[in-house]
Structure formats: C-alpha cells, structure tokens
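Limitations

Structures in this collection are predictions, not experimental determinations, and the ligand pose is part of the prediction. Treat each record accordingly. The example that follows, with nicotinamide-adenine-dinucleotide as the small molecule, is included so readers can see exactly what is and is not provided: the inputs are given verbatim, and the output is the predicted complex.
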Amino acid sequence: MKQVTIQTASKTYEVKIGVGMTDEMVSFIKVSFPDVSKIWIIADEEVYKLHGSSFKEVLERSFDVTTYLAPKGEKAKSFHTYEEAITHGLKHQVDRKSLVVAFGGGAIGDLAGFVASSYMRGIPFIGVPTTILAHDSAVGGKVAINHPLGKNMVGHFYQPEGVFFDLRYFSSLPKIEVLSGFAEVIKHAFLSDLRFLNEIMHSFKSVEDLNEKFLTDCLVRGIEVKGKIVSKDEKESNIRAFLNFGHTYGHAVESASGYGNRTHGESVMIGMIFALHLSKGHAGLAFDLDSFIHWVKSLGYNLTIPSSMSFDTLFEGMKRDKKSLNGKPVFVLLKNIGEPLMADIEEEELRLSDDFIRRL
Ligand code: NAD
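Predicted complex:
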C-alpha cells in the first residue's frame, strides 16, 4: 500500500492507494470515529452494480449503513440529485454523528462532498474513488454541484477525513475513462517536471498494457503534485489556479459538447494542447509539441473539434471561466515544464491556437 499525506490549512489527511482498501477504511473509521452513528454511502448507481454489494457487506459487518444511489456522470451533480440525496439522509436518520462515504468517480466525489459539507451544517466524509481521474478530484477539498448556467458553480472547500483508492475498481473502467483519468495525470506532470512527463510518455504506450505498479506510481506522483500546491493555497487565492492548466479551453469544449458527451479528461487534453501552443508563442516554451500530439493520438484520444462548434461559441465559454479578468480569458501557460504562469490572452491569439487545434 502507498500513502500520501495531504496537509492543508484546515485539515491533514491520508490518501491510501492499494488493493483491499475497504478493510483499511473500516479500521480507520473505528479508530477515528468510534461513536459513528451511521455510515451513509453515496454511490454512483453503475459503479454500485459492479462493486457495491461486497463493499457494503464489509461495512455492514461493523456499522449501521444506509445507501443512496445517484445517477452516473454529471447528472449526479444536479440540484435535483442533491435534494434527493438530502431527502434520503433525512428519511434514514442520518444525524450529525454520521459519516458520508463517497463511492464512485469525480462526479460522485463532488456531489457527496457537497452533501456532507451542507447536511446539518456539515458532517464528515471519506472518499472511495473508483476512477483514475478521481486521483485529482478526491484530493484538495473542492466539492460542488452544477448550475444550469455553469459547472461547479455551487460548492465549498471541504476536505475529506481520508481517501481510500482501491486499484481493483479500475479493472472495470472503460478505455475512454482510463484515457480521461490519465489526462489529469499528464497535467500534473506538466505542472511538475520534465522527468515525470518523459517517464509517462516512455512507459504509457497503450491502455491495454497499463500495469499496477506504473499506475500506482502515476497516482502517487499526481497526488503529490496536487497536494503540494493545495498545501500552499487551499482556497485558490493564487497558485492553486495553476491546476487549471488545460481547463480554460477544455471546459469550453466540454460545455459546448453538452456535459457527458465528451469526457472531462479528453476535453482537458485538448485544452492542454491549446495551452501548450499558446505557451510556445506567448511564454517562450521550448517543447516538441508535434511528438506529444503524435503520442496522445496513438493512445486513442480523440482531438477533433466538430465544425459545428464555432470559435465564437468556445470564446464565450472561455470568457465565462472563473479566472477571466474584465471579460478577458486568463490562461495557465508554461514557461518551462514545471514553471506555470498566468496570462490574459487577446482574442486574435486565441483564434490562431483554435485554428491549430482544428487542423490536428
Ligand atoms: P464520473 O464520476 O462521471 O465517472 C465517469 C464514468 O465512469 C461514469 O459513467 C461512471 O459510472 C463510470 N465509472 C466510475 N468508476 C467506474 C469503475 N470503477 N468501473 C466502471 N465504470 C466506472 O467522472 P470522473 O471522470 O471520475 O470525474 C469527472 C468529474 O470530476 C467532473 O464532474 C469534474 O468536474 C470533477 N472534477 C472535480 C475536481 C475537484 O477538484 N473537485 C477535479 C477534477 C474533476
């Protein structure tokens, strides 16, 4: 088992990665919450069908358990699902001594964390992430649901008590979700150092060939990169915004595709290539972008922007980004690998990078 300590201004907790983590979590709960009244599992219904019964069975041996099943994907982050979850909690006597356990990918982590942060003014929660992407979302305490006018617009900074990654759950992940998760691993490498990036590019040749050791190593290093940034800036007053590398154009693409129609990670991958192209022109980044794109395509990422999705639509999306200043999109660029900076960019420059992406 591997372990990374996340130390933020409001809380310090462990992220544990390994196999057979449910027993580990039960021991943790017994020690840290000896008076826990109920375990409230908030789960992705699809993940629950695959892995839920054995998970719940282990918990039921030691605790009183109630389970709320949320729809998969972004539907989990709607006002409707949030209200339904709260209703479930109230009807099943979840009280202030209860503990929420989030069981699913990033969407469930965001929903369950937000439910925990607001239910009876806040009860503790634990993350049990089941996607690779959630190595990013389960760490750092950003929890949120979506508003029809924008993603993650209603939320809190609310740290979990602990995070338990069981690698066995990844065996059922579809290829597209593996690629989605790896986009965030690659993002962490870009924000960290060239060696990490080169190691991933050297070792990751196909989704089918991923092995447990390499995957664990990538998760640990990705979580360490995120943990380091979050420990210095829990509430995104400054450097935490660097974690948005690839997200300005990426979120615009994801939102214009209709949430759920393109994975978050694939959108971020397109956004990172966009930001790398900008970085070469704007921040003097020396980087072999062609080879990177060749590698990314060989892995199976679909980088196509449909012609029906105009630059103007994406530009509106980029302006709506939370980092925008006076209506001008602000980007995380790289001066070097591991040296991010923020820059506001003129529309004409954005149009050139958009042309570049459309020619890929
Ligand atoms: P997700 O939770 O929607 O899961 C993706 C799909 O994979 C779903 O259909 C789900 O049912 C399925 N799935 C999950 N685990 C599975 C498994 N083990 N086997 C088979 N199928 C499985 O998406 P995600 O990619 O994990 O996370 C994306 C979400 O995370 C977005 O809402 C994004 O905004 C959020 N996010 C949050 C943060 C943060 O800091 N809070 C950071 C990054 C992303």
